[in-house]
Amino acid sequence: MSSSAPAPTGVSPPRIPSSRDLPGGPHAVGFASDASGFALLARCGKTRCRQYVAVLDKAADSWRLARNPLPDVRGDLGITAGLVVLGPGRALITEGKWPPPDGTWFTGDGGRSWRRGSVAPAGTTAAVPAGGALVPDCSRPDKEGNGCAPSRLLVVQPGTGRFQVLAHQPPLAGELIPAGETAGGLLFVSGADPGSGAPALAVSEDRGRTWRTALIAPFEEHGWGMRVVASGDVLYALHPGQLPEEEGVKNGLLALHRSTDGGHTWQQVWKYRKGVDPRSSIGDPVAAVDGSLTIHGEDAVWRSTDGGRSFKEARGSQGLGGSATVTPLGYVMGGSFGTGSYRISADGVHWHSFDLGDGT
Asked: In CATH, what number is assigned to the domain containing residue 305?
């Protein structure tokens, strides 16, 4: 789902308060650019998980429990609720695995009320408005049943939470997946080059009204959708995928591409080699204002200071240490195993920690 990246500021991180009295443990947290936010939590017993919604109002010193539209989850079905923050006081909760979700709920008043929405798009829209989000839409499964063929992009309208089809789709084939949004407003989408089938990125400089192909990567048979992060005009496109079984990782890292001109030209700076780390990547890489790039792997954290050409293991990073997600407020780092411990940074260098949930 599309999220706006933080600008490289070199300033102190947002001071998000902790709220350890919230019930259960959080599994989704998102923020708007004014430092307000939403969190989804769950408290699970042997036969049932009860779900909760918490809201952080602008300038508030604590989170509050909001009305919860989600039903209890019984048996061993697991938690499948998702969260899309659409601006101050606005959010969409999705139920079920994308795409499409089984149901949606929208709030425009900070979780005080929720409106049940449709999972089907209604009409078209020319662009992605401020606060809106790009999401994938699966018109039908592919032959293997693991993806979509063909797929298209929808826009979540920030004022209503409703889905609309983006009028002008990127010039890509295969499964279209939102790949990131920069602080300067560039929208990236991952897919395949129509001619060769190679993995490719398309970029829009006008909120989705027009698109151009930004990157055609070397063909990778087992590649997944790319992700783009930015620090100023420096962009990184991370290409995850399936590595050989003997590497022993689930979230493999195939390649890393770098652009220094806002995405007009790209250079492959890193490529998978047997036994060479980082071999895996979880979440978004962190492109920091000091020029470093950090990748959170399955068993360690890896940091590069030469534009992604080489990496060194971060001190004391052994073991799964969570993953980062780009939000309009900054990078949000979630702790491992749903501990409720988070860190947030506006520049990838300076971090502030906060905790949510009582862990029950």
From this structure: 2.130.10
What is the Cβ-side half-sphere exposure of residue 280, based on CA atoms within 13 angstroms?
19
Distance between CA 3 and CA 234 in Å, rounded? Answer: 17
7-38 tens-digit pLDDT: 545 678 899 999 999 999 999 999 999 999 99
Instruction: Output the DSSP codes for 100-130.
Output: SPSEEEEESSTTS--EEE-SS--SEESS--T
Residues 267 and 260: their CA atoms lie apart, in Å, by: 9
Classify residue 73: in a domain, yes or no: yes
Residues in the chain: 360
**Domain annotation covers residue 162:** yes
Rounded mean pLDDT of 175-184?
Answer: 94
Q: Is residue 243 in a domain?
A: yes
Cα maximum dimension of the chain: 55
What gap in Å lies between CA 268 and CA 257, rounded to an integer?
Answer: 4
Q: Is 0.85 surpassed by the pTM of this model?
A: yes
Q: What is the DSSP string of 267-302?
A: EEEEE--TTPSP-B--B--EE-TTS-EEEE-SS-EE
Residue 151 burial (10 A CB sphere; 0-12, 13-18, 19+): buried
Which band of pLDDT confidence, cut at 50, 70 and 90, is reported for residue 1?
low
Domain range spanning residue 287? 25-355
Q: What SS3 state is found at 324? A: strand
How many folded domains does the chain comprise?
Answer: 1
In the sheet that holds 124-125, the strands lie side by side as: 124-125, 163-166, 151-156, 133-138
- Which tens digit of pLDDT belongs to each residue from 302-346? 999 999 999 999 976 665 568 999 999 999 999 765 689 999 999
According to DSSP, the residues that pair with 202 across neighbouring strands are 189, 213
Q: Confirm whether 63 is domain-assigned.
A: yes
